[in-house]
Amino acid sequence: ITEIIAEGDMNVAYVPINHSLISSCIVRHGHPDVIEEILPAMCSGETIACIG
Q1: Residues 9-20 pLDDT 10s
Q2: 30: Cβ–Cβ under 8 A, 6 or more apart, which residues?
Q3: Cβ–Cβ under 8 Å, residues 20 and 14
Q4: CA 18, CA 39: separation in Å to the nearest integer?
């Protein structure tokens, strides 16, 4: 799906790619308290991940 979206606009496709990359880093390296707080919010759309 991301590839199809990217054909139209890579900027829009970058959002789910970025979200996936950040959530993977949080799962692998995050403190359990951070994981419990952030991941549910990311899954619900309440929090959107970014690389800064």
Answers
A1: 888 888 888 888
A2: 38
A3: no
A4: 14
**CA distance to 1, 4, 5, 7, 40, per residue, from 10 (Å):** 12, 10, 7, 7, 26
What is the three-state SS of 1-52? CHHHHHHHCHHHHHHHHHHHHHHHHHHHHCCHHHHHHHHHHHHHCCCCCCCC
pTM of the shown model? 0.67
Residues 4-52 have pLDDT tens digits of 888 888 888 888 888 888 999 999 999 999 999 999 999 898 988 877 7
Which residues neighbour 27 within 8 Å (Cβ) at sequence distance 6 or greater? 35, 39
